[in-house]
Structures are given as structure tokens and as C-alpha cells.
Amino acid sequence: MAQLAKRLIPYAFLAPALAVLGIFFVWPLLHALYLSGTDYQLGGVPLWVGAAHYQRLVQDPMFWKATWQTFLYLVGVVPPLVGVSLLLALAVAKPRPGIRFFRAAYYLPVVVSMVVVGIAWRWLYAENGLLNGWLSGLGLGGVGWLTDPSVALWAVMAVTVWKGLGYYMMIYLAGLQTIPADLYEAAQLDGANRWQAHWAVTVPLLKPSISLVAIISSISALKVFTEIFVMTGGGPLDSTQTLVYYLYEQGFTNGNFGYASALGMVLFLLVLGFSLLNLRFFESGKVQA
Amino acid sequence: MRRLRNLADYLGLGLIAVVTVGPFLWLLSTALKSAGENIFAFPPALLPELPTLSNFTAVWETVPFGRYTWNSLVVSLLSVVANLLLAALAAYPLARMTFRGKGVIFVAILATMMVPFQVIMIPLFLVCLRLGLVDSIWGLVLPTAVSAFGIFLLRQAYMAIPKELEEAALIDGCGPLALWWRVMLPLIRPALATLAIFTFVGTWGDFLWPLIVLKDPQQYTLPVGIATLAGTFSGNWRLVAAGSILSMVPVLLVFIVLQRFFIGDETAGAVKG
Question: Whole-prediction pTM value?
């Protein structure tokens, strides 16, 4: 009896966590797959329709527009996050007096909720807001940051980047801790200046961190929602519509649970595909420091 | 020459700080401006002429701001307790024991990190509907009561503890639960603190799920409340700015007081050597 109890111990420890994950994750995931094949309106009964939603999806121009704009979001947000955060990390890596203040200042946007960040930037982007005020002062016209369909998506992207910089900076800083200073100093002795030494020495050794940042920021970009909800609501003229926002609209504004679930499955495949792609791309040539 | 370069460095760092902190300061400035000042003035006035706190009091009168804050506080703290407990329990066997199915469970937990929340949010809503968790604190706490991130973080921490300590306690006749509670947990305190803080900040700022699961405005958490404020009173920028600044205060306090958990101490992050 005691022997049985002893063997059950690991499972006992795992039980609460697994119960929560089972009820609130695994079951919903399976259910989502099922729902994606049903016509299910809120308040109604699920009606099996097979692959109908997926067929509709492929022919839905809004789906393609949202997916395209999600892809643009990826392209617009990941490179700056990967690159600029790295520069920031290099800039604050050296322990000078007061450097902690700067690190904290750069991390501040990360801690504040995206709702407040979205509001703050909506205010900056306002027609008569600060940014346009300064542009007018320079003699340039104002920009319809959030009202011009050709600008809005990029304006929102800038906010995502702005909020994320400090977070990825910290990941890089952690990675920098594993690089011995002598390598960097040796490069400088060989005549390289600060930036050349970094480019030749530090950056290649940071490949694991760069890969990590690329993956995390890619997945975040694919899931973007709050900043769009707070700043543009998908507009103007659906120019800031993304896959997740469309999913939300279809599910919770229009009550089309079935169709929304199908959209969700597509999102899932995209994220999975991206994670695997990133891993494949960066795993090759990993330096064993 | 060194001096000049140093100065230039600090100036550069300062400029970046203006970019990252500036938008909040501008929001604060707007929140402090009295009714008579033109917030759309050109050229834009960075400092209020007649600073006033009336916008902040107006927020309290317009929306149940205290209620929002309380809800956020309760949910965040419960979430921290739940996450710490569940992750600390679950990570222990994954770090220290061998048992049938360990690999499968490990991979399954890892896999949960691959699935975006938005993929499951609809059926999750339906589950909560069926369990009567909609519009309740538990609807916010239970679904996110444990995270793969937390489990892996604590697993790392457990694995760093020397096996001898465990063995010594076992020789002394310590049962597994007591061993976990009295010996292992205290030894991973730093990781627990880190998890607590990240869970707190994450739950505090969570928006999409509370937006979906809460219908009664009395149950709203701060982010939902502020977003509603910004939506309903979208023309009244002073009010919205004041509300946003107020909602930042608790997290700011946590950040300032406990910043070493976020950004490490003075020498952390420096190039090694």
C-alpha cells in the first residue's frame, strides 16, 4: 500500500496544475477544433457543417485582408524589435553610474498596461495632438496617424515596437552576461572601435538571444489585439484589421462562434508554422560558446 | 576627450529615455490641465499653466474607479497565489522525480506555450459559461491559474538545488510534502519572487480575457474600465488622461519598489569579465 502511495506522489504534485490545464486549455483546444466545423451562433445550438467555414474563409476578402495585414505587422514589428532592442542593450550594458535609471526608464513601457499605452499614443497621434503640433511647428502638415488608412497600421506598429523594446533589451542583457569581456577587449586592441568590436564579436555570440527575441516577437506580432482595439478598432476602413481582431469581431461582436473558431485554427497553424520556421532557421550554426 | 565622449553617451541615453517616458509625461501634463487651458493648443504647451487635480477627482465621480482598482487588485493577488502554488507543486516532480509519463507531460506543458490564447478563447468562454464563472473573479483567476512559463521557471530553480540537501532531509525521515514545503520552497525563493511579480504585472494588465468574461461594469478590472472610459468619454481627453494615469499608479509602485526583479541590479547585464 505504501509502495503504491509512493508511486503516486509525482502525480499528486502535478494534479492541480494538470487539472487546470486540462479544463481550461486542452478541452477548449479540442472544442475549438470541433466548433470550427460547426455553425454555432451565440445562444443557438451547434450545427455540424464540416469544412464549410474553411471554404468560406478562403473566399472571404476580409480574411485575406486581415491575414495580409497581420503579415505586414510581422514584417514591420519584428526587425525593429530584434535590432533596436539589441542596440539598447549594448548601450546600457556597461555598468556606469546611474545606468539603472536608464534601464528602468526603457523598461517602463513594458510594465504599463497596453490599454494605457494605447490611450497615451492615441492622444499623441490625435489630429490636433502633440506630434502634429510639432510637425506644424516645423512647417510640415499634420499626418492622419490613425485616420489615414495608408498610415494607421504602421502607426499602431510603432506603438507595439515602442512598448516592447525594454522587454527584449532585458533578454539581450541576460545573454550578454554570458559573453566574456576579454573577447571584446581583444578586438578593440586589434584596432576596432566600440561598434566594430560589437559587430564582429558580441553580436555573433548573441545568436541564441537573437533567435529567442525573433521567435517571441514574431508570435506576439501574430497575436496583436489590444493596441488595435484601443487605438483604431480595426479601422479606418479596416486598414488595421488583423487575424486576431477579426476573430474577436466574428466571435464576440457578431456571435459567429463557428466561423471564429475556424479563424482561430488558421491562427494556430500560422503560429505553429512560424515557431518551427524560426527554430529551424536559427538552430543551424549555433555557436557553442 | 573621454569626458566629452562620456557626456555624449549620457545625452544619447537621456534622449532615448525621453522617448520611452515622454508619452506618459505628456499624458500626465494633459491630466493636470485645468478646464480653461486649451489642450489642443498650438504650439503645444508641455507644462500646464494652472495645474489642477480636478480631472483626477472627476474620474472617481464618473466611473467606479475604486471598484475597478479593487477588482484588479483582488484578481491579481489571487492569480499570484494560484500561480505560485500550482507551478511550485507541478515543477517539483518534473525537476526531481522520475515517473511514468514524465516526458509526455513535459512536452504537453511545453505545447501549451505554442497555442495562442485567442485560439481557445471562444470555447474557454463557453466552458466558463457552463461552469458559472462568467462575470466573476474566479472566471479571471482559474483559467490562468497556472502557466507553462511559471512551471519551467521554477523547474529551473529546483534543478539548481544540490541533491544532497534533499537526501539529508529524507534521511531525517521527512515526508515528500514536508520536504517540499519546508526545504525546497524556501530554497527557490528568488524564482518564486520573480514569478510572483511577473504574474502580478501580467494579470494586472490583462485586457482581452477580462473584456470577454466580464459583462457587469461593477466587475470590471482596471484595463477594461479604462478602455470603457476612453471609449465612452472619447472626447474628454483630460478625463481619460487622468484615469489612465491613476491606473498606472499601482503597477508603477510595484515597479519602482521591486525594480531589481525586473531589471536586475547595478552590475547585472554587464559584459562578463
Answer: 0.86
